[in-house]
């Protein structure tokens, strides 16, 4: 299948996509807050190898300078993802959303409002911890930024070789924006009727594993599955359970699409 580059966006702006001009199945990958495309690259390679149209998006305010993220929040990220979904629909019969952390929450939000084929949400926040929002509001009175935490990985080898070009500082306003939307997201989950795979990490130090259980409980769809990853921390795509994450992601897309039976080689 010949790969072509085309540009399309319903609001008149440009979205550059590389892949088959028309694909039965399209995959949109969405990283987390203060993340980048590197976080989702293994899944990107996995689905591209099957000839699918894949977009590993870079959320607004990311991948440039931290000051570009200061004034942005949930609505900016959700709008960017929505536009990408609508552009994909012009070239795909089915669109699947796969997101990690904030990206997973955004994918669930979009699935409540846009027609998609399915969602995979990995370590997505829904409640977080009760002290976080008051603490962030207090910190914002003193400083707009806090140092970015190191990657939450259990696998020491992966932590050593997993290089992320992320901001050294994290804007508190962006974190607050995400937290403020979570109550609305909880109201949206019962509206989701498409298949959803929820993955949560038992030992996640960023998003409590109970958030995965609550997402699963509140989802309106009958086609839902909850996987608890026992050997990983927050960055499950790079941690000990990364092969299981890939296998289950591919199997999910295969099950709810017209793809052939999945075959996967382990990513190292």
UniProtKB/TrEMBL annotation:
Signal peptide: none annotated. Keywords: Hydrolase. Gene3D superfamilies: alpha/beta hydrolase. The keyword Hydrolase applies. The keyword Hydrolase applies. One of its GO terms (molecular function) is carboxylic ester hydrolase activity. The active site is at residues 101, 204, 234. GO terms for cellular component: membrane. InterPro entries: AB_hydrolase_fold (IPR029058), AB_hydrolase_sf (IPR050266), Esterase_lipase (IPR012354), Hydrolase_4 (IPR022742). It comes from the Bacteria. Coiled coil: none annotated. Pfam families: Hydrolase_4 (PF12146). Residues 24-240 form the Serine aminopeptidase S33 domain. This is Esterase. It comes from Ktedonospora formicarum.
